[in-house]
């Protein structure tokens, strides 16, 4: 069973992106990437030699970093609210 069902994705986009169908919003994409990053991080704690998943994790972290950089340049208040809500940049 997949860990990210359609209902869970729709809930993430509804919470962070405004509407459940607004899948292009930067806030929703960052929230979805954060959910995937957390799941793969937990996987890698038990499977230390899974290097392909580790590479995928690094690519997702880079993508999230680029999206957050874009958001901070274009909407600073939205950026600050998002990192506070997701618990990033402690």
What features would you highlight for this structure?
90 residues
Structure characterization notes:
The mean pLDDT is 93. This protein has helices at 6-17, 26-46, 51-74, 76-86. Helix content is 76%, strand content 0%. The radius of gyration is 14 Å and the shape is globular. It is built from 4 helices and no strands. The chain is mainly α and 90 residues long.
Can you summarize this structure?
The chain is built from four helices and no strands.
Question: Which helices and strands occur, and which strands form pairs?
Answer:
Layout: H1 6-17, H2 26-46, H3 51-74, H4 76-86
Helix pairs in contact: 1-2, 2-3, 3-4
Please provide the ordered H/E string of secondary-structure elements: HHHH
Shape: globular
Taking the sheet with the most strands, its summary is: none
Helical stretch tally: 4
What structural category do the secondary elements indicate? mainly alpha
Number of strands: 0
